[in-house]
């Protein structure tokens, strides 16, 4: 555990006999396959090196105390009382929802003091919430001496907590990516069957740059749920022709014959075409055709902008600045959209010029200062006790 975290932990909670253990869960960048996890689609996220660390120590009672080195809020949860959502609890609702699910599943939880610290920008579309959820589940299971090896069960439990406790009707992609991430690999996940395999992200002379618009995701949750409702409306209109395994599998000709509303048609066109792009992206990543991979990223953004309408002016401005900057093979928004982050595939030698150029283009268009993270595909949630 990093020395400063151990020191801050003792400063907050005092020294004690029990061991302070530490755990890490990464954020994720979705390479391609956006807004189709809840439509039975294929997605290709990668865990990133940025993430959240938790230092935790068992207590002798049934009180959970949560603090963060990045926020003054102090949260207390009594395991002997019902755990309900509470707006005053702020970020503490993510771990609280997971705690409730763990208890419902019969995990024998004891009191724990926990201190989080993060390198992940909050609300930037890199799944800080899924990272917090998976981290809570992973570390609390470990401290309860329950198995942590069933990552699928952990991901599903955390998705349920987010759906039912936080009230965001998210798909399975983020929690899965945070749990199953693997160094230098993306996860090709079939969200219907939950089958997955790893695709090596061998970018050679190129790198994926995460570009933060510095525009917090606005309306993301309500618009997100609205898109899900629209996709369900398309399925209803398809009637008995609706594919059982998700809208991504609907033939476009069926949409044309059953759906006359132009907005719903566009939503369906994004969903169906994004699935094809993910299949193509998996193929070209294996053959190393990075130019084709870059084109698919940009096509995905265009579809999310024009058909699914989840980008907004800030994401559009940063992607457009990236596409005009030196060394860029392609760029797109990542995550739910409506602000947050985009990714770009960039020639490594051009990264300094690329960032200067994107910064000035984006600043001129929006007046906001962007941030850049050069990261790579990383491992999923794991224990870090004993690591320096
Ligand atoms: C959010 C959700 C995911 C997924 C993406 C969009 O990150 O949590 O389940 O739907 O948006 O691809």
TrEMBL record:
EC number(s) on file: 2.7.1.6
Domain GHMP kinase N-terminal: 94-182
An example Gene Ontology molecular-function term: galactokinase activity
Residues at which ATP binds: 68, 123-129
Reactions accelerated catalytically: alpha-D-galactose + ATP = alpha-D-galactose 1-phosphate + ADP + H(+)
Entry's Gene Ontology cellular component terms: cytosol
Site keyed Transition state stabilizer: positions: 28
Enzyme's top EC category: transferase
Domain (GHMP kinase C-terminal): residue spans on this chain: 285-349
Sites where the protein binds substrate: 34-37, 224
Binding annotation for Mg(2+): 129, 162
Keywords: ATP-binding, Carbohydrate metabolism, Cytoplasm, Galactose metabolism, Kinase, Magnesium, Metal-binding, Nucleotide-binding, Transferase
Residues of the active site: 174
Compartments, as annotated in UniProt: Cytoplasm
Record pathway: Carbohydrate metabolism; galactose metabolism
SUPFAM superfamilies to which the protein is assigned, alphabetical: GHMP Kinase, C-terminal domain, Ribosomal protein S5 domain 2-like
Record-annotated Galactokinase N-terminal domain positions: 7-57
Function: Catalyzes the transfer of the gamma-phosphate of ATP to D-galactose to form alpha-D-galactose-1-phosphate (Gal-1-P).
The family this protein is said to belong to: Belongs to the GHMP kinase family. GalK subfamily.
PANTHER family on file: GALACTOKINASE-RELATED, MEVALONATE KINASE/GALACTOKINASE
Protein name: Galactokinase
């Amino acid at each position: 555990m990093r020395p400063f975290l151990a020191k801050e932990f003792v400063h907050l909670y005092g020294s004690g006999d029990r061991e302070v253990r530490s755990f890490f869960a990464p954020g994720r960048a979705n390479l391609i396959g956006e807004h189709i996890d809840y439509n039975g689609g294929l997605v290709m996220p990668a865990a990133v090196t940025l993430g959240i660390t938790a230092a935790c120590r068992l207590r002798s009672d049934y009180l959970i105390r949560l603090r963060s080195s990045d926020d003054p809020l102090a949260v207390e949860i009594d395991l002997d009382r019902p755990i309900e959502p509470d707006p005053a609890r702020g970020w503490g609702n993510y771990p609280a929802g997971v705690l409730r699910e763990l208890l419902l599943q019969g995990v024998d939880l004891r009191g724990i003091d926990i201190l989080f610290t993060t390198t992940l920008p909050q609300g930037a579309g890199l799944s800080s919430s899924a990272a917090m959820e998976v981290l809570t589940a992973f570390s609390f299971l470990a401290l309860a001496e329950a198995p942590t090896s069933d990552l699928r069960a952990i991901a599903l439990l955390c998705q349920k907590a987010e759906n039912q406790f936080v009230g965001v009707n998210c798909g399975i992609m983020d929690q899965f990516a945070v749990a199953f991430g693997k160094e230098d690999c993306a996860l090709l996940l079939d969200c219907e069957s939950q089958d997955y395999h790893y695709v090596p992200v061998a970018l050679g002379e190129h790198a994926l740059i995460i570009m933060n618009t510095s525009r917090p995701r606005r309306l993301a949750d309500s618009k997100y749920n609205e898109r899900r409702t629209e996709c369900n409306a398309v399925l209803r209109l398809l009637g008995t022709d609706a594919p059982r395994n998700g809208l991504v599998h609907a033939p476009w000709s069926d949409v044309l014959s059953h759906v006359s509303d132009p907005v719903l048609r566009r939503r369906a066109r994004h969903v169906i075409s994004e699935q094809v792009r993910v299949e193509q992206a998996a193929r070209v990543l294996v053959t190393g055709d990075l130019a084709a991979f870059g084109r698919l990223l940009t096509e995905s953004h265009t579809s999310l902008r024009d058909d699914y309408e989840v980008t907004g002016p800030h994401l559009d401005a940063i992607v457009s600045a990236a596409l005009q900057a030196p060394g860029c093979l392609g760029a797109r928004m990542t995550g739910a959209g409506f602000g947050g982050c985009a990714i770009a595939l960039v020639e490594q030698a051009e990264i300094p010029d690329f960032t200067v150029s994107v910064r000035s283009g984006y600043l001129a268009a929006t007046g906001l200062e962007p941030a850049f993270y050069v990261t790579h595909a990383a491992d999923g949630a794991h224990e870090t006790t004993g690591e320096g």
